[in-house]
Each structure stands twice: as structure tokens, then as C-alpha cells.
Design a protein that fits this description.
two-stranded parallel ribbon, globular, about 10% strand, alpha+beta
């Protein structure tokens, strides 16, 4: 049986729970979108997502990474 691609939306991505969820999702190869209501924290959110994906070996292991500021 073919398994569907996993996708996750993390609201509050700049909270401690949101940051942890980003790291876990990347490690599991889940395509992830994250949001924040705090414009001042957008750069931190982007950095967290990029760092989580870089810790893995390749795109296949980490899922898709798309950054839309």
C-alpha cells in the first residue's frame, strides 16, 4: 500500500514547543509549514527550520524545505 506524503502545519513556530516540533518533523521527513504572529521572530523561525534540515543528510531524509518570508 502506498503511503501518502506527511504534511504538518505548526502554528506558533517560534515558541519552544514549535521549535521542537520543527526539529522532530524534519527528522521524520515530514513536509512542514510553520507560522508566527511576531514579525520580529521571522528570522529566528527561518533559521530554526534551515538548521533542522541541515542536521539531516539529504532532502529525501528531511522532506521538502520551502521558505516564504
Amino acid at each position: 500500500m502506498r503511503q501518502r506524503a506527511a504534511r504538518l502545519l505548526i502554528r506558533g513556530g517560534t515558541s519552544s514547543v514549535g521549535m521542537a516540533a520543527i526539529a522532530i518533523a524534519a527528522a521524520e521527513g515530514i513536509e512542514t509549514a510553520a507560522t508566527t504572529r511576531q514579525p520580529a521572530k521571522v528570522d529566528a523561525l527561518i533559521a530554526a527550520v534551515v538548521a533542522a534540515h541541515r542536521r539531516m543528510q539529504n532532502d529525501e531524509a528531511t522532506g521538502k524545505l520551502v521558505i516564504v518570508p
